[in-house]
Amino acid sequence: MIFPENMVKVEIISPVNQKDKVTTEILKFGKMEVIEPAHPISNSRYEDARRELTAIQEHVNKVKLIMEIAGTPLEPRGKMKVDSTWTDVAKKLSEEASLEEFRYKELLEEIGKLKGEIDLYQAQLRELEPFSGITTDLSTLYSLETLDVALVVLTEDQLNKVKSNKNVVVETTPLKDGKYASVLISRRNVVSLDQVLKELGVRRFETNEGKSPYEVYKVLSERIGELRKILEETRSSLIKKIRENEREFSELYGKLLTARDALSLLSKGRISDHFFQIEGYVPERDWKKLKSALDQVAVIESATPRRFGEEEEPPTYIRLPKSISAIESVVEIYGTPSYWEISPLVFLVITFPLLFGLMFPDVGNALVLLIFAIFFHRYGVKKGSNNIKNLSLILGYSSVVAMITGFLARDFFGPLPVGGLKEMGIANVSGPLDSVWPVPVSVTEALSPLLPFGEYSTSTSIEHTIILSILLGAIALFVSSLLGVINAVKKRDPEFLVFEKLPLLVLYTVPLVIFGYGVTDPSHYFSTVGVLLGDILQNLLSGIHPDLSNPTSALAYGLIVWVEIGLIYNWISKAIILKRHDHASTGSALAMGFIEGGFEAAILLLSNTISFIRILVFALAHYYLLYAFSYMAYLVVGHPSLLALGTNPASIVILIIGNLLAIGLEGLVVFIQDMRLHFYEMFSKFYEGRGKKFEPLVASVELAT
User: Fold this and answer.
1) Which UniProt keywords apply (predicted)?
2) What's the whole-model pTM score?
3) Which of 191, 375, 392, 652 has the most C-beta neighbours closer than 10 Å?
């Protein structure tokens, strides 16, 4: 899970009459990604396979389209007998797929026609919308005796030109696209609006038979509603028909996918008069299984590629338990790990839910997010969207951790249900859940440096929480920098190691030493760190006369020198890289190196480290947002009674609004900030994400020969 699987590059050469047997065995094996041969035995390809592949892919697309339109994604399943060549199998499958598609043709055409009509009417509605409030018939409005009226849509420049004409009165309403719905009015014997509009290059807004925009808008809206109802009925008929033939449809889908992969394999191979050749990548631990399956029909040679430096980088394959594989989708937003890189997945599985839980500690709010994640996952299953399913699982995991931290913080939809008015400092009235809460007050008190809420929210506890938040950040940044060094070693690139990654490790060791110094005296951790920070500040201010009177002061001065050496090292490293690769002059390289490796690196060292304070900030923001709404609810009631708070309609509405804001707004922001801490502060230190995902050819159904 930490490193991608070692891959083996295999070359398979078989008698030409065994190519279909080889293909079948590789599909059964299911762990080989086929590539173009590096040293082909000929320039000839299996053209029949390439031809049939196009037809099979079209059928796959049509089947997917049918499932998408019906909103009923099906998993491939069933068995498939391969008793002839794969091209013959593909031809039979194409005929079978054509018959199956014809079964749904009438309904699909009806759905397409209905969608087309709805789109047409919606386009007309969009044109009508700016004037939909006008109830007068346009035939009447445009034929007044003394006034000339025109409804038009104008750009800002056109509007300014009209306003410059003193004989035309203009009323406008701004539209979303930057244009203006305008009503132009003038006296008929003074100025001709037709001439004004002609000069502007616009036309009057017209309706069929001169009816009022309101009436036409209403009729079109009703028609769209009717069409949507018919569309849903037609889609229901399609779903019913698919469900009636679900087994056959799933089997056909699986056969098509299997045939597609078989033909893809055959089309990438090379063929001569006597032999068939293919190459690809296989996980090292599995390749003997493939060799055993093909021993009787082919010759197999293998080579183990280096982690870095090959002309062609192997694909990246990381074995993950199914229960945590969803977290991979977060990493893939950044990029797939390169073959030589440490995968961040193993850390992300722990750190992502943990940081989310620390920033969103509330059992009730997290429970709502968990329920939302469950329904969101079902929606993803219904739509056949892996992204939605993975995102919902990540949100679910994070919500569970947030519930745990919420139990520790004794928060359930804010402070009232557990701590009650006592926690808010209003009256000695505990919440209704206080006596049954599974976590005792003593535990919450012990964790107050990490979760400083309610009566534990003092200036000292918040200061301690800041230090712990930065300690978490210092550990994360140090580990990230260390992983960058390990990656550089595995990459076997000395320049990358010495000039890119080692300077970062030198710099980001300093915050770890500062905020880890307190562990030398765990019982006085915060005061020990505070003394070291004070000595660092004193030594910075003392200039060339450092205070070395005690070990802590000496360490403080040593850390300052360490940072200075690290920044100079980073400055020189950047200058060398600029001179070597960008061919900059010595002066230019030193100047740009100072900006990037000195000044910017110092800013990033400070900002990246203190950035983790956001863990505290969002936790406090969440708590005090709910605290504020709870206090407003108390003010509405006017006296310290939890019963009154729970029965007064106004106070209930206030509490619901507060919790909805906390769940919706805070939940979204915390999720985004959690990703930012990983992507910007952590991943940027060690992770490049420029790899190619391992995509093996597989049999989507059980193959029988």
Assistant:
1) Coiled coil, Ion transport, Membrane, Transmembrane, Transmembrane helix, Transport
2) 0.74
3) 392
